[in-house]
Amino acid sequence: MVARTDPYRQLRFVLEIEGLVTAGFSRCDLPSATSAVVEYREGADQPTPRKLPGLNEYGPLVLEVGVTDRSLELSEWRTLVEQGKMTEARRDAAVVLLDATGNPAARWVFREAWPSRYDAPRLDAMTSEVAVERLVVVHEGFARVAVETGDDEDDTESDGGSTPSLPDLDFPVGEGLPQGIDEPRLKTSRAGDEEPDET
């Protein structure tokens, strides 16, 4: 008898952003990925244009979260963009869908993400709804990657080399910074990136 496999439900998920704590959101709209179609035809071709792939385009990641002291970090992330500090603002991120037991079930990773828009909550004294703020995050590519379940991956991470390509990005589920990133090294690397601009 073939084992039954049910699809995962969408009600449990977390977001992890490089350098920020893991955050829970009330809503997360994952983006679309499309490739523009370029039509081309030569005179000797059949009377139908060829369909060639053009630029890859990625929609934004839209996040909604209830206003708390902890959500202040998201507003501060947006402030970095307004101040022109894009070296600090660009971060890798991951959205992790959890199964019924709270374990990671599906993972989408985002490269060079930064918040392009922040919407403050709508306040109304005549309602008792939760105050919700909204963040629109743009990025330079995303992909769904396999959820790692083995324990033999740790020695290949954090080798001090260049940033891995998108499919290799791997962020754990839980509090704190993404895997392979520690706060002292993060601050040192960013300070080094900003030094040439000051001279």
UniProtKB/TrEMBL annotation:
Cleaved signal peptide residues: none
Positions with biased composition (Acidic residues): 149-158
Biased composition (Basic and acidic residues): 182-193
GO molecular function per UniProt: structural molecule activity
Matching InterPro entries: CHP02241, Phage_T4_Gp19
Region feature Disordered, mapped onto this chain: 147-199
Pfam family, one: Phage_T4_gp19
Coiled-coil zones: none
Domain of life, per lineage: Archaea
Entry-linked PANTHER family: CONSERVED HYPOTHETICAL PHAGE TAIL PROTEIN
Name of this protein: Phage tail tube protein gp19
